[in-house]
């Protein structure tokens, strides 16, 4: 990525501030030069924001910017060396009993002269750069806060939208389902709405997503829906934009509502009064499109709308930022727009390209190229429409389409402005420090390696992108990460909890990589960009290789990139004897994945500036013994280095170390001197072990700054007194804690025989050890794995024993001996996610889980237990048969998602149906004795998989999506009036189920045997015809060996169409009327 000049200058100024400038001046013989450096940077900083902006498009500015950046990079290297020598001087002086720094510098006159000369030359370079800057007439744009508070006149920020719907932009079933869902929410009776404002007239719903993903199209479709037209007597569409005018937006609202705006002037109060009169008593829907902040609502429209609009009026807002929806107090959860399905994306591209019906067969023959273009567009609707606009000017020939696919059009400078600026506006709205983090995120390999939030924020800190107090850097970096999510520039991967992993849209990634093109290269083996390694100098390099070792990139091919400060390698890279890291003396960040690192381990210490080091090679067996010389090293990750069995003693000298991960290694010994690393914030994979009468947990006592900690092998701790010495409860910054014992369960999750594995003394001892590992009240996330006590530690059984009032996430996995769930959790005020997995000894969950004894005065004040729980997972409790939850016990009022899997539960408790009124998504998998699911009024999505006794699903009034797989006894579906989509998977059924006759979803998807598919393909001649002919759209598939969904039948009721490729007498595609 490219550094942002404004932020980079601030980073260097901070480095200068932290130095003892007078001492350095004196020692180096460069009196005043350090001060001069700071002054020159301060002078330049006044117009760096403008220089950065113009650097995007003004080619005359670009060489000047490159020269300035090179000079600033050199400055950081020089200042680093000064600090390094100061640290070495301090260590040497103490070791030799010499505390006078002058004596040390006198022993190093060559170093002093060299550094002094370099600083003088640096200042001369800055003088010349400052002088040349006058040529460009840069202007002072002020601080980011000043800039973001000013209106701009840029046409880019004023995209005007209207309520008119372009039908060519509407494709696929998802937008239809989303429209119905949101129309239902907008028109539902306010009295029956579970979560709404006291003033129902101003309830706000939000559509959120990145620019170009289709928010406006969805809002237009909703605005023009027949139900909306029937329910609301007034409709207002406002295109708000970033730089809206208060007077203009009020006038437009008055016009849309039929009011008189003539001779009203521009006075806000007057216009608000006129609007209020126009709305008086009318049930109104207000759509605010493309909102960048909440001011247009909070300061302008909320008062007249709230005072005058009729009962049941609604506001629908589209925005790129979750923060805007939150500020407008929109109803949660917000509606996030997803990318298009590839098939729908192809339909959208065809709509843009086909000029007449005769062209469709020709375009269909180009589908393979079109799908590759769609892949490059990342299924983003705006990108596809832009490409469609280009392709429609070309001939429908393979050669022409391939030219577009391989053209430089994919560099942002050549792409149409509409697509560029949709993303550029979001980028320009970022703080300079956040811009750097955003650009850096585009370097992260995204195919073969998973990078967690800790990896990302650690790299940002190592690169100097995070400004702030040293004690708060991780918190600040995490705030940056979350802001990128809230701005929808990165999006959480739903496979991971709590935003631990995020992805970046390919189109957004391409934009960011273009913005960083002069300094950073993201390349893949076999792709054209890899050739740039030999022709251009880069500061940051991200390589991703796939395939066999025979196809791997050679390490020697990187040797020309001597200026690298960041090197990220994911996948195999060929390393041979003699290869070295010493070629890259300026590296700050190094990540190497799956390669033979042992060959180069000895050269690691040549990287004097290195802050972040991550290696995941399973063959790595050693780190350099003199690693302690790497004074700047802050982050070490050794995840997956299976052959690594010990840490070098020198690690105790890394006084700046903030992060250490030993996950996936076989390191089972911690040096006794580890306790001196008091700067550590996070330790993962810490081994609990004994060494005579000493326990490794003891070294944790002085590590008071710990924010994250995972401990493995706690069964090795022989006495609870050793656990007490860790003093976890006193670590006031600890937000994440993982406690592990080695698994005692069989591979199938069944309980092992206790008399063969556990003694009563062992079970008692592990409980006592965990008793002494009580976390502090500030804890946010707790994970427990492999705990084999018969009962839980006392701080989980009683809220009085450990007031975990901030605990938000709790997961417990592999609990072989626990016979009941902990009963001290239900009153935790902040608990949002609870996961309990693999607890084979639990047969019954009783009232104690929901109604523990009130052992703390605070508990009785809460109206409901588990008051903030949103997500509940109970899986592989294989002997669990009974769940007692009576109707009068109020619990889980905010529960939204529930996964129940692999147990013997006979029925869902009545309390769940009565009190989990926010439950939207329910997943029921492999529940052996469950025979019915009924009366869950709020559920909108239901999955039922492999429930052998399930016979009945009834009374789900809001259910719109139902997914059924492997439930052969299911015979009754009733009371599902809102159902829109049914997915049915069963490779054993010989005929379609009878219940299909009795209801009418909009969409039916079937995965079945080829035999049944063949029958379906017969259409009106099939015995199955009367079971699906009344459904608007049916898609049915069958596999062919390992080829999934090779065979298909596609049916549409109106206008009638039936297509199939099944190899029988109905295999020909046909389009006929019945």
From TrEMBL:
CDD domains: RX-CC_like (cd14798). Keywords: ATP-binding, Coiled coil, Leucine-rich repeat, Nucleotide-binding, Plant defense, Repeat. SUPFAM superfamilies: L domain-like, P-loop containing nucleoside triphosphate hydrolases. Residues 199-358 form the NB-ARC domain. Residues 11-91 form the Disease resistance N-terminal domain. The keyword DNA-binding does not apply. The keyword Hydrolase does not apply. One of its GO terms (biological process) is defense response. Residues 448-512 form the Disease resistance protein winged helix domain. GO terms for molecular function: ADP binding; ATP binding. Pfam families: LRR_14 (PF23598), NB-ARC (PF00931), Rx_N (PF18052), WHD_DRP (PF23559). Residues 576-939 form the Disease resistance R13L4/SHOC-2-like LRR domain. Belongs to the disease resistance NB-LRR family. This is Uncharacterized protein. The lineage of its organism: Eukaryota, Viridiplantae, Streptophyta, Embryophyta, Tracheophyta.
